[in-house]
Amino acid sequence: MQTTLKSRVTFDGIGLHSGAPVTIVLHPAAANTGVVFRRVDLTGTPQLAAKWDSVIVSPLNTRLTNADGVTVSTIEHLMAALSGCGVHNVLVDIDGPEVPILDGSAATFVRGIVNAGLTRLSAPLRAIEILKDVSVSEGEAFAQLSPATSLQIDFAIDFADAAIGKQRKTLNMANGTFVRELCDSRTFCRSADVDAMRANGLALGGTMENAVVVDGATVLTPGGLRHADEAVRHKMLDALGDLYTAGAPILGRYTGTRSGHAMTNRLLRALFDDSSAWRWVNCDAKIAARLPGVGVSVADLNAVA
Known about the structure:
305 residues, alpha+beta, five-stranded mixed β-sheet, 8 helices, 30% strand
């Protein structure tokens, strides 16, 4: 069955790119609501559905817009937490244009969601089953969805900085995997890119406390890495969040090579442009057991470093 939160959850922080303070409140929502953001700082409280066809192409984050041009950006970590914890319906009140970055990962969102708990609703859950390969590419970047019985993510990255280098990881997202393996992995950047981003009005809220910054073979962030392969884990976290803008859990294998937010959105657009590539499936207990978030427990959360 579909789920929502048992109680509301509040998060305070700053926007990674705007540097502005922001508060978000997650509210329980009715069945078939999906994930909906409400800009409570604007007249009329405009709403934005977290769906692939409302995403504006952006290389550094995932940004939603509505017909009136209202936006909410950097939604990917929250979306990953909702997907990885199995939350299907939620209203997200936000008093600014950007979701707070918190510590640069999804761990704080996950902790709040797990502590609030979930309620099953009286409506069946549907998933999107991938029926054939769909792929997009640009230069050396590549992303593909392929048939699989659960959501699997296979991601590869290759950076010149030796502190990152070449990394690859494959995980099945069922049975609390996201919470245990990915949710605490932080966003990262190269030191050489920081000045350029700030010159363009980006990363104004970035600090050593909410991002992993590397320079060649050196990790500049105090305390170093949480995982030796934290960079690729974070890219997988981003991919999970971006895939959740499909509007439902996905049964399929995502393969990404040097992929990012824009590439994953292009992939979803290609998928939904081909009606023979996917279908809706009603989730019985057997299918539901293979979805992200099913079976997540406090023990999974306590296993996070």
